[in-house]
Amino acid sequence: MFKDHDNDSFSQQEGDTVIGGSIKIEGDLASQGNIIIEGQVVGSVKTESHLTIGQQARVDAEVQASDANVSGEVNGNMSVSGKLELAASAKVNGDIKAKILRVEEGAIINGKVEMEGASLPEFSPEVNEESSLAKDSDEKGKKQDKKDKKSKKENEDEVDF
Amino acid sequence: MYYYLYDAFLSDPKYEKIVDKIRTRLLDLEIQGKPGHLSLLKSANELIEDEVKNGINTVVVVGNDKTFLKVINVIAKNELTLGIIPIGENNEIAQYLGIPPEELACDVVAARKVEKVDLGMANDVYFFSNMRVDKDVSRINIKKDKFQIIPQQNCQSVLIYNFCYSSGNIGNHKILNKINPQDKLLDLAVIETGRFSGGFLKKKKNNSRYGKTLLQAPEFEINSFEYLPVKLDNSYVLKTPVKAKVIKDKLKLIVGKHRKF
């Protein structure tokens, strides 16, 4: 499902930021281009493009990206406006917010997962009419239930006498 | 007006014929200019500074990469145009600039196609290719914008590139291809220590001198607790702390059609 990013880390486009396994970054890492992390990052990571977190990587940061592939460890909340893919070796200790989420068997998530698709859709006028009809029928149903309950009580009272 | 600066190694009799051919060709093309010769007693800076007073606007070095790198500072400070006529070995810069060897280069100089490229500046010294730290790399930290880069134990060298003409330094062509002398950015590359493979007797390094990090920025700052040497273009040495920045379009270079940037 996921590629071995260690081997193809440099097949990305120009403007990539590549954090190798031999360095640690502390602070706010922000880029308009792709970011590939194979080392350590502490702070925050923001990119308007693709983010790749390699198998050996450790990211102790708030993460924001357009799309992301995670094979390593993330300790912090992740917010991905597009597609987030978690490989089997991925471990996320934090909340995830993504539009599309793909999780490989074995990946670990310790946190809440919120997806844009799960929120209520915006209703069109036609849909509103249907929903208002549905509301009316619900209300009628409730009234009917109340009437039934009242008549049952009356009947019970009659039995007592 | 052209000023031709011949390197000291060309006084060796084995280069006599080549130098004569070059002089003849320059004469044919009517761009003979004024010759100068480097020696133990005459530095490139002194010779060029003297000729600037006489109104030269173009310096053509005759020699190799070392000759070229020697004159970068004085060329940049005086805003001159720089060309090269490569002779002998170690001429990777000329290859990168698309300049053929020896007398063939005279035609490129005569065509005078000029490209502006960025230069790096470390403290107040210009560098053409790179600045690097090879010693105690894990004791430095590099500041960039809002974050700092801390090399770990398996980090062998840190290089900040403006222009990369040789693959020998990094060994990773995918990183090399991203280093562009006209992008108004410096490129930080980190070389990791190689892994060992094979048995005890066959012990050899794999992937040593292999760059795996690339960060781009117009400025970097190298700091350390103690003074550490920072080499500029493998010739000039500064001590930390060093502030490096890119100077846009600072150097005017004579290039050939087949340049690689």
Helix content of chain B: 10-25%
The Cα radius of gyration of chain A reads 26 Å
Q: What pattern of helices and strands is seen along the backbone of chain A?
A: EEEEEEEEEEEEEH
Number of helices of chain B: 7
Write down the overall mean pLDDT of chain B.
88
CATH C-level class of the largest domain in chain B is Mainly Beta
Summing up helix and strand content along with how strands pair, one would put the structural category of chain A as: alpha/beta
Class of secondary structure makeup of chain B: alpha+beta
CATH architecture of the largest domain in chain B, by name, is Sandwich
Report on the structure:
The complex is a heterodimer of chains A (161) and B (261). In chain A, strands 1, 2, 3, 4, 5, 6, 7, 8, 9, 10, 11, 12 and 13 form a 13-stranded parallel sheet that branches. Chain A folds into 2 domains: 17-118, no CATH class; 120-161. Chain A has one helix at residues 125-160, and strands at residues 17-19, 23-31, 35-37, 40-47, 50-53, 58-65, 67-70, 73-75, 78-86, 91-93, 96-103, 108-110, 113-115. Chain A is 22% helix and 42% strand. Chain A is α/β, with parallel strands linked by helices and 161 residues long. Mean pLDDT of chain A is 78; it is low at 1-14 and 127-134. The N and C termini of chain A lie far apart (75 Å). Chain A is built from 1 helix and 13 strands; from the N terminus they run βββββββββββββα. With 261 residues, chain B is an alpha+beta fold. Chain B folds into 2 domains: 2-112, 3-Layer(aba) Sandwich (Rossmann fold); 122-247, Tumour Suppressor Smad4, CATH 2.60.200.40. Chain B is built from 7 helices and 18 strands. Chain B has helices at residues 16-28, 44-53, 65-70, 72-77, 92-97, 104-111, 173-176, and strands at residues 2-6, 34-37, 58-63, 81-86, 114-122, 125-127, 130-133, 140-144, 147-151, 155-161, 186-192, 195-197, 204-206, 210-217, 219-224, 229-232, 236-239, 242-254. In chain B, the strands form 3 sheets. In chain B, strands 1, 2, 3, 4, 5, 6, 8, 9, 15 and 18 form a 10-stranded mixed sheet that branches. In chain B, a hairpin with a 2-residue loop joins strand 8 (140-144) and strand 9. Chain B is elongated. The model of chain B is unreliable at 196-209 (pLDDT under 50). Strand 2 of chain A pairs antiparallel with strand 9 of chain B, so a sheet runs across the interface.
